[in-house]
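In response to reviewer comment 3 from the previous cycle, which asked for concrete evidence that the modeling workflow produces usable outputs, we include below a single protein chain processed end to end. The sequence was submitted unchanged, and the resulting structure tokens are shown without manual editing.
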Amino acid sequence: MSNMGVSPLVGIDPSVADRFKASLRIAIKRMQVPQDQILDIVTQLAIMFETGLNLSAALEVLEKQAATPQQAEFVGSIRRGVENGKPLSAAMALEGWAFSPVALALVRAGEMTGDLGAMLQKVAEFMERDISTRKKVRSAMSYPAFMAVMAACTIIFLLVNVFPKFAELFGDQPDKLPGPTRFFLDLSDILRAHGAWLLPAMLVGLGACIWGARSREGKRIFDPLYLKVPAFGKLIKAVSISRSFHVLGVMMNAGLNVLEALQLAADVSGNHRYVELWDDTRKKVENGHDISETLMDNPLIPPAEAAMISLGERSGTLPTVLEKITSHHEKKVESAIKAFVAVIEPAMTILMGAVVALIVSSLIMPMFAISQVMK
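The workflow returned the following structure tokens.
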């Protein structure tokens, strides 16, 4: 039978394998040239361009002073695109993994209005705010991730090194041992016999689950659930609203039409429910409705913010209103992060303590039984 439609390398659909390979290549590039370095490049490019240096010469300077070969290749790719006659936005799009749709749209708007230097500065400001928000969220997630790794390492150490030493004390009648003890003894035997391939396989499986959850279909399934998680849901909601409203305000101030601004707001929102919200809003605006009509009475948008947007549309001050809403939600992001950390720290401590206590008690219970028999 033909094997068409199945990848000979990985045994799965070629489109899935191709997407995985593309994601892996992008991840490697982002590690080689992180966002902090890209922000520094954009900031310096804006300064040099505004001081009168032409674009090609400014890019050449940045390429020569690059700290790493990967950074030099990154800037060189953009420079070659510009020297081949492409506008800066198109040249930057050649390295699309490094720039968000918002950044490319701002540069394109600067090219159309002839104010590229100011738009590059706006790109730098947008990137700086976005990087700051991401760092805050990652900082909040680092503690539970650290605790999870510590718990896993502790459990594996107990199962591999401690349980085998106690197993000899329990004799050759495992049926008489308590259920938890038998379970952990069996798990210890499995880990010692197959741990060399089982643990790496579990790590690969965990990575595949994370990649699947971050895929388009995974986001459609899991993103609505994230919003319902206590503390974490409020954090996701605050971040999504802050990013979306910030992009709307920046795009409208830059002179982009409302439909394109709404599309970009959907792209950067980060949660599938908000993507659906902004897509629905864009379709209604195309049919002559106001932005606020879709946001009113929607549980994803606080009523006060929807009312402010309605007022901004009627008074013609919508970009200003959006900036104020963004500033307010940046403070809410910080509050949500503090609330999330306040909930997750004791929860992770209790969970880790409970698991370790269960393992230790499964060792102690048979020893008490042995001591009673000896008495």
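The chain has two domains: 14-128, 129-375. We consider this sufficient to address the reviewer's concern, and the full set will be provided in the supplementary archive.
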